[in-house]
Protein: ABC-type transport system permease protein
Organism: Natronomonas moolapensis
Amino acid sequence: MVTRLDRLLVRGAGRFPGAVVAVTFCFLYLPVAVVGYLSLSPGAQPTIPLDGFSLRWYGEVFADRRFLRSMLTSLGLGVFAAVFGTTLGLAAAYTLVRSRLRASVRGAIGAVIALPLFVPTVVVAFGIGITANRLGIGFGLLPVALGHLFWVLPFSTFLIAARYGELDPAVSEAARDLGADRVAVFRTVTLPLLLPALVASALFCFALSFNEFLITFFLSGSGTTTVPLEIFGKVRVGATSFLNAASVIVLVIGALAAGTASAIRKPT
């Protein structure tokens, strides 16, 4: 049922599409542009307008050993989430799309997998922390890695499942009729067709893990520091040019991963 408010919104957007796009674009990207602008400040405390432009703070970021260690930790966690998230997502996608389970069972499995998307991240992090404590794992790199894996799994599963659903089962059946076993069919037919979705899934998982803060904050303890945690720790000192440059680097890495994933994930 179309309400009066819906009609007003449609008419307003239809009359001023350029203004709507401009406002949306500014809302999303103006803060990012400001951070990038301030990262070019020659001084430690940036002001608007800048007195000049300098890449000094990017050099300071890459010369900071503590920041580099946190960068390596974030990269390692991102690779872990990409590899294992995509692998488990592929298995889960097969279960949801191609398994012989009843539709109600597949629906229940899908709902369980999707649960982290609807539960507040703080609740997910708290639950993983309690479970890790009960199992004697404690806090540190392993609980953080498992927490990131738990977080990225729904995204990986449903991205791959969407591609799985587009595949024509007749192609696999034709390969079986020609004498190929299930393993050969999967390796030579299904896997190449799923490859764009698998690569996109890996990149999305990497980007999600690399930028994850709350789960890492709850589970890292004192010995594990990622880039978001390192930036958060320095924020309390003040919005310095160092932080702006570090934030731009993190944004670029995440944007490249997510953008590449979006470009790759195209139906063939």
